[in-house]
Each structure stands twice: as structure tokens, then as C-alpha cells.
User: Fold these one by one.
Assistant:
Number 1:
Amino acid sequence: MKVILTQNYEESARKGAEIILSALADKPDMLLGLATGETPLGVYRLLAEACRGGRADFSRARTVNLDEYVGCREEDSYSRFMSDNLFDRINLPRENITFADHLADPAAEVARLRGFFAGHTVDLQLLGVGPNGHIGFNEPDETLESLVHVTDLAPATIDANARWFIDGAVPTQAVTMGMGDILRARSILLLVKGESKREALRGLLESDAVTTRNPVTFLHLHPDVTLIAEKSLT
Ligand code: GLP
């Protein structure tokens, strides 16, 4: 794992955006795996700026998102989050976006997305991490699932994500890429932001052990991971 420690979040976002922009320049039709949450927001702002300034062209790129809530309101969906923060600000064709539909039957969405991943390889997967070590919505448990599945959100995740919902009522289920789907990406870019991630990050940096109780540690199994975190978190 390549570890990049930064002075502050701005620097993390800049380095993250540089890695994505360089991958896009090398492969204009890349399949980019995307994440939601606060962590990637600075990266998305810089990608949008690069596109506006003519330094990035997403016209042939394709994207797939890690996860989506089941049965949430449109305005609370991750798909809306991505439109607001990235898709509406870059020249990515709508038809090149793959997303679980928050209103569709979750079992049907799982089948559709499993089909997608059977036929596509993510070139670069951007990841954040939850305070409990989850990646996507692969929550700490006795076992982890390999493929796209419906998951019950951990109480800690519901608490951590309540800040995004006006009434605090976080959906309790999500459709998420599985650990195998994530680990099959050609390369992975993990961004860590915020004090609440210190414990999960420690598990990743202080040992090469892999544990289902801290799913982010599974990234030790991947040959091409770049971790970007603020030095103060280590
Ligand atoms: C959600 C997403 C994760 C993300 C995590 C961290 O739970 N499903 O993919 O990494 O939030 O969120 P934040 O970046 O807001 O701390």
C-alpha cells in the first residue's frame, strides 16, 4: 500500500484529484468507481474545476457508485448527492452512469448490478471509510459479502450519517458493492478524512492483519492501493 500523508484535507483532496485526472488522461474511457459522503467532496470540486477549465474530459468516461440507500426520498439519495456535487458539473454523459435505483426493488437491483460487475472491471475505485471501518456499506460483521447485496446498516452508521438527513431519519438498508467487487478494481484510492476515522485507520496502518471487524483492512489484499490521509490522524 502506498501511503501519502498530508498537512490538511485540501492537500489530500488535491492529491486525490491529481490521481484521478492522471488516470483519466491515460484512459479517457475509464470506468471510475465513486464514493459518497463528506470525504470526496473536495476531490469532486477539483474535478469539476478541471473540467470547466478544459483540463479534464469526461465525455468518454463511465462511472459506477459504491452504494445507494434503499427506499429513501429522491433528495436524500446518493444519486442526487452525486448529481449535485459532480455529475451536473462535468461533461459525463448521463448514460455512462451506473447507480442502484433507490426506488426499485432491491433484489432486482442486486441482480442488475451483479450483471454489470460480471461484465465490467473498475479501473480506479475511490473509497472513503466509515468510522467503524466500513467501505461502501460493507459493515463490520462475522462475515463479509463478496458481491453486490442488500445490507442492514449498522447502528453506528445510521448515527454517523444522520447529519445528512433533515429529519435525521436515515434509511436502514442499502444496496452496496461487495468486498470482492471493490477488490477487483484495478487500482484503489482510499481517502481518509476526519477524527472519527482514527481508529479504523490505525487498524489499517499498524498491522497487515485482515479482519471482518474492520472491513477497510481487506485493502491489504489488493496489490495497488493508495491511501491519502492527514498526517495528524496517524
Ligand atoms: C457512507 C458511505 C461510505 C463513506 C462513508 C464515510 O457511509 N457509504 O462509502 O465512505 O459514508 O462518510 P464521510 O466521508 O461522510 O465520513
Number 2:
Amino acid sequence: MSEQALLSLQNIIVKREENIILNGASLVVQPGEFVYLIGRVGSGKSTLLKSIYADLPISEGEGRFGDFDLKHIKRKQIPFLRRELGIIFQDFQLLTDRSVVKNLEFVLRATGWKDKKLIQKRISEVLEQVGLESKGYKMPHELSGGEQQRIVISRALLNKPKMILADEPTGNLDPITGEQIITLLREIGDAGTSILMSTHNYALVKKFPARIVKVEGGKLQEMQLKQDL
Ligand code: ATP
Ligand code: MG
């Protein structure tokens, strides 16, 4: 038997209000695979990521992530699904009223961690992974945009996710900082976590090549770098 896919979407239909946004979209992602999601503004990239995160329901077709049936998932199972996903969304930013460590601790406690020592250890590990082990005491506003995005990535890593969903993670960053963030995501990918990242930044896609999937007309299509993006 071939290795089981981590994510498998087959002919899914996803609506927002009454509008069909994804209409027969299919995508298979293997463990450890890095995939760029491209497509025009409003094509449905965020919609796709939200359907994997069970933030939007799949109306038709089949969706599976690991052991979860995304189409029939029950409300009480959603936190367990989300523990296997690291989320880097623009509308999912740091809490501004507390330090970096307190931000990370908040997520661990909310996902069932209780042992103080283990919590501190895990926080140190993820901060080290993103190269910010000395910044834990800082408030979010004391960090640069790139540093804040690294903290958001460290937060996504807390529960050792099988896949990271990143919605335009370099969108608000200058080119050099964007390259540093993508390098970090690629390292995380090389360590075995799948990454599905939406982006409009074709310069980065060209510089850091990986599989490319385009959202167009409600469907998903594999793209080659040599084609004009
Ligand atoms: P962008 O590149 O601008 O981020 P996108 O590819 O992520 O675009 P989506 O945000 O998935 O696109 O939006 C797809 C479609 O869904 C758009 O036509 C949009 O108008 C619609 N849409 C987005 N958010 C909502 C919402 N909250 N309620 C209803 N429709 C929405
Ligand atoms: Mg979007």
C-alpha cells in the first residue's frame, strides 16, 4: 500500500453565504509536502484553508485530514482537528495585552496543557526554533513585523502540528523579512511538517521553488514554475 495522504480533498464544494466559491476542488497533500497556493484575489485560497480548518463546511464531495472526516466532523471534534493543524492566518494575530511567553502559554493552556514545567519547556523549544529565544518577555508591540510573524509561527508549532496552514504569511513584510520567514517555513517543512501556504508573492515562489497549486474557477490545478505565473 502506498503511504497514506495527510490531506485529501475530492471534488469539494464550499459556499460562502449562498455563493459557491469552491466547485469541485480536489487536492492531495502528503506528509512533509510543501505546497504554494496561488490564484487571483477572491479566487478562494482563504476559503480552501478555512475548509481544512473546519471554519467553513464542505457541502459536497469528500474531505479527509489524517483521521478526520472534514465533511462530517462534529463540533466537539474540531478542537482535536485544530491541534493537528498550525494556523498562520492574518486574522489570528497575537494578543496585544500580554507578553510573547504569555501568548504562547495561553494557547497551550487552552489546548489542555497543565504542567508548568512542560509548558515552559515547550515555549522555550518553539522560541528557539524560530530564533527568538531571548524575546519571550517582550510585548508584541515591542517586536518588528518579521519578529511578530516568527512568534505567530512559533505559536503554530506549539502542538507539533502535522500540517501548517499559512494564509499570506509574508503579505505585510518587506522582501528581505519575507525571505527569512519563508526560509523558516521551509526548514519546518524539511523537518517533516506539511505546509500549505497561500501567497501572491511570485518572486518568493520562484526563489524558493516547491509544488504550486492554483485556485481558479472554483477548482484546483497543478502549476509548473516555467509557466507564466
Ligand atoms: P485574496 O487573495 O484576496 O486573499 P482569496 O483567494 O483568499 O483572496 P477568499 O477570501 O477565499 O479569496 O474569497 C473567495 C470568495 O468568497 C470571494 O468572492 C469573496 O467575496 C467571498 N467571501 C470572502 N469572505 C467572505 C465572507 N466572510 N462572507 C461571504 N463571502 C465571502
Ligand atoms: Mg485570502
Number 3:
Amino acid sequence: MFSTQLKSKLQGAESVTVLTGAGISAESGVPTFRGTDGIWKKFKPEDLANFDSFIRNPQLVWEWYKYRKQLIGSIQPNAGHIALAEMERRFPQFAIITQSIDNRHQRAGSRSIYELHGNVERNYCIGCGKSFTDAEIMRMDKAPRCTSCGDLVRPDVVWFGEQLPIDPWEKSASAAERAEIFFSIGTSAVVYPAASLPLSAKRAGAYLVDINVERTERSPWAEEVLLGRSGDILPMLLELCRSNRLSEHS
Ligand code: BV8
Ligand code: ZN
């Protein structure tokens, strides 16, 4: 299944970078955005995940996010998340850039994570920035209001038309530049600027691997396309990474 080139790279690479999308959590039961079971099917991105819609109809947008918070809260990291958390310990430099907002990489034990599109477990007031936990939010009515200034509270996620958080973006861009191997996992690669990262990694000399159940926009650029579920493929890739690497370095 894996080329000898990838096998030798996994044995010797110093720096590996991973970009994950909604597909990494599909096997945990979280519907993806554009796949066959995609959550966008029922809704349209422009209707829900943007600031103007939120101001116009906060109840509807909060209904969608409360549904997703409940769904996400109940799911476990899958074998793919867990393999990535272990893989991080096998390389001197390893970073996960995620478009997912479900916090499952953290739950699986990964540490070096850059959240490009925020995290649905965090919420903040659009007026004074005060943060609110999910427990507080779930107790509030349809469109949660700030207990300090009375303004609307929103989920701490990046909506369409909104700029990505500067710090995770900058760290992601340099993690792409320094990668010897760049894995693009479970993403349709249609949302920018995240979708540009595999290309900048490749331009900087990375060995680009696309892992997905189907070919994507990025597949033509990839040195290797691994077709299959990330929960099946990632544990097999982990087997190919030398286990005693970090002990040599520490
Ligand atoms: C910005 C958070 C500007 C919210 C999300 C026209 C052309 C190009 C770009 C644009 C354009 N018009 C507008 C834009 C910009 C826009 C954009 O890219 N739009 C796209 C749709 C064309 N981007 C933005 O607006 C971004 N901001 O550009 O700001 C700016 C600049 C300067 C100053 C001010 C402003 C902000 C984008 C962030 C939007 N927020 N999420 C929320 O989640 O509620 S995006 C959303 O899509 C999620 O984050 C998701 O992760 C992301 C990407 O989707 P994927 O992760 O790839 O998921 P998808 O379902 O598409 O694919 C899943 C894949 O998994 C599939 O390929 C499937 O086959 C595979 N799969 C399924 N099961 C498995 C699997 N693979 C492996 N194993 C499995 N088991
Ligand atoms: Zn406030």
C-alpha cells in the first residue's frame, strides 16, 4: 500500500506536518461538511457560518451550533486521532494543523495543534470579549447574552469571510514550509486559505501525501494518494515510523 519512498522518509524524517479536515472525525460519528453525510446538506454555509446571518438570526445559528456541540461532546477520538497523537512522539518536529473545531485531537493526546478555524468548545461575547463555557451557554436561552454587557455571545469559530487567527496561521505556514513530509488528511481542500498549505509545503520541497476516501483537489499534486479511511490508514503508517527515534534524540 505504501511506496518504498514513503517508508524510508518515515524512517528518517526530522519534520512532519499534518493538515486535517472534517474527514478525520468522520469515523467518530461527526458528519463532514461536504461528504455524502455532510452537515452542509441540510444547511448552506452562507446561511449559518457567517457573521451577518448570526446578527440577523442568532437563534438559528445557535440552534445549529448547540446541535453540533452536543454531537461532538459525545464522541470519542478514533484510531486516526490516536495514531497521530503517537506519531507526534516519533519525530523531533511534528505539527497538526486542523480545520476541525471539535477538539478531538486534544482529547486524543496530541499537543502541537494549530486550530485554524477555532474550537467549538469555546465561546465569547462579541461586545466585550468575555469568554463563556459550554455549560454556561447550554443553560442560557436560544441566543445566549453576555452576563457583563448584555451583547450576543458567539462560538469561538472562524466564519466565512472572517480572517483566520494570526498566530495559528503563522505557525501553520512555517510548519508547512519546514515539512519533509506533509500529510493532507480528510479534507476536500476547497476552503481557503487552509487549502493552500499543502501546496506551499510541496513548493518548499515536502513529500505530499493525500489521505482520503476519495480523490480530492489536492490529489493531482500529491506524490502519493492513499485512498481509504484515515482511521485504518494512520495506524498502519504509525507502524512504519521508527519507535525509538526520540529516545535517540533525548
Ligand atoms: C477568509 C468553522 C478572508 C465554522 C469553517 C471563492 C474562491 C476561493 C475562496 C473563497 C471564495 N469565496 C470566499 C472564499 C474564502 C472562503 C472560502 O474558502 N470559501 C470556499 C467555500 C470557496 N474562506 C473564508 O471565508 C475564510 N476566511 O478567507 O477571510 C479575509 C481575508 C483578510 C481579511 C478578512 C477576511 C474562512 C474559512 C473558514 C470557514 N469556517 N469552519 C464551523 O465549522 O462551523 S470551514 C469548514 O470547512 C470546516 O472548518 C471544515 O473543516 C472546512 C473545510 O472542509 P473539510 O474539512 O475539507 O471538510 P469537507 O466535508 O469539505 O471534506 C471532508 C473530506 O473528508 C472529504 O474529502 C471526504 O471525502 C473525506 N472523508 C470522509 N470520511 C473520511 C474522509 N477522509 C478520510 N477518512 C474518512 N473516514
Ligand atoms: Zn460582553
Number 4:
Amino acid sequence: MAEIKCIGILTSGGDAPGMNAAIRAVTRAAIYNGFSVKGIYRGYKGLLTNEIVDFKTQNVSNIIQAGGTILKTARCKEFQTPEGRQQAYANLKSHGIDALVVIGGDGSLTGARIFANEFNIPCIGLPGTIDNDLFGTDRTIGYDTALNTIMECVDKIRDTATSHERLFFIEVMGRDAGFLALNGAIATGSEAAIIPEISTEVDQLGQLIQNGFRKSKNSSIVLVAESPVTGGAMGLAERMRREFPEYDVRVSILGHLQRGGSPTAADRILASRMGAAAIDALMEDQRNVMIGIKNDQIVYVPFSKAIKNDKPIDRTLLETLRILSI
Ligand code: F6P
């Protein structure tokens, strides 16, 4: 195995709170262990356009608390082509980079996996996405902050929902995964969560809402995961308006505000541990793995497992939500 002297770091795909804490941890742990570091701007795009600069410890000062990513991020189509990756490799070599740390979600780690295999370059992935949808890790960087943001927003919406005695459908992000919707619903005492993993919930929704209103409730909140499977908050609200015209239905789509803000302590600590672990992994000759966390222990998850391997959602949480929303 060729000796590693210089490590490149990039963030890619949708930004997530805690990415900066991860950049800081990778940079500082690398320098502490005698490596040099290059920051690559705008994800894989910056590899192609040569936006690569030396990173010293000062480059990552005062960023642990900042949302977004100081390295910027992008979704890069050219990197999906063999020609694009060839160019990226040439640029990487011209900067003397021998290993890569990629912070991002499913798509970004897929890119890292292909690149690593094609050019035999050591790549370590850090799971950076609010969606929490990467297999092999209990948590992804950004998920806890997004969950807390959802909680604050839903708490506020509840005030107006209660005052007006309305039924609210609140749409949250998650791409194809329902972690944010389900745990967001539990954290806010919502009446239901509609998630893509469990489509039968959609059919039972009318019944559930009716029961709630008939019994003790004059207002209801339903968290809906964005997804063609759930139909999104708009789709569900339309259906409810048709089926139960007596209810005063409103929709709120939380959108990109879920990706912003200063990371929570949990995300800062997770990102710091994972960032340092990425350097440990390289020093242990680990190749092409994602850093994960399982039962509060750092684990190495091969890219082949982490990517496109449906991470199961804990169905008992849905039952808990049902029990607690009577
Ligand atoms: O993967 C993170 C995420 O925020 C998803 O939850 C969402 O579906 C998607 O990115 C939105 O992407 P964009 O910012 O490109 O619209």
C-alpha cells in the first residue's frame, strides 16, 4: 500500500449541520498525525475544476458551531462519467493528494466508491445527511439538528392549530426515508406520521383522524415524509378535504430550513468523533469504508453495505406514536 502523506477533504450533496465540525475534526486529526490536508471546494465539482487549497489548522478555526459547509457543496453530473472521474483523478494527483475523505449522503458515497475502485485511491466516507438513511450507522451527521428544528417548528404550528381547531399536515424532508417524520412526530406529540416505509398508514389515516376528533381532540397534527409513496402533505390534505369536508385543513411544508442552523451538541460530538475516526481508519489501512456509529461505538462500514442498502426503520416507534396519541 502506497504511503499516505496528503489527505483531501470535500463535502458533497445536500449540506447538513455538523459538516463543518466534521471538516474541522478531519483537518485537525490529520495534521496532529503528521499528514498535510487539502480542502476541495464544491464537492466533486471542485475536483474537476481544481478548486483545491492547502488547509492548515487555522482554516478550520471558529467553524464548529456554524451550519452549512465552509467547503461549499454541489451535486456533480460530470463526476458520474468516466471522463469526469479521470480528470478528477489527474487533478488530485497534481495536488499530491493520496487519500480522500468524503462527507455526504448516499449519492456522494456512491461516487467515492466508484472513484476508489477505478483509481485504487483510499477513500473514507463520513455520513453527512439530515435524512439518517445510511445503513450501518445509528445516526448521520445533521440528523439530530434537523430533528430539533422540526420539533421547534411543529411546536409553533401547534399553537395556531390548537387556537383555530385545525388539522395540519406538515411535510418534512427525508428523501425516501421516514426517520425525520416518525421521530419528529414522537418528539412533538403529533397524532400520526406518514412515512414511505409503511404505506398502510395512509389508508388508516382517515379513521385515525376521525377517532381523534370524535374523542378528545379539536386539532391534530400529522407529520408527512416527502415522498411519492406518501403523496406528500399537499396530496394527503387534498384527500382529507374531499373525504372529511367538515375539517379545517391546512398544510405547512418545512422545506430547506430543516437543513440550516447551528448543529446541536449531539451533532457536533458525532461529527468530531467521526472526523477523527476517518484519520484513524486511514492509519489502520482501512480502505473504502464509511465511518458509522453503533451503540455509541465507532464502526467501519464497507461502502458496499452503507450505500443503497435500505436502512430499516424501527416499526415499534410507530406503535409508540399510536399509543401515545390517543
Ligand atoms: O438529502 C438531503 C435532502 O435535504 C433531502 O431530505 C431532500 O429530499 C433533498 O436533500 C433536497 O435536495 P435539494 O436541496 O437539492 O433540493
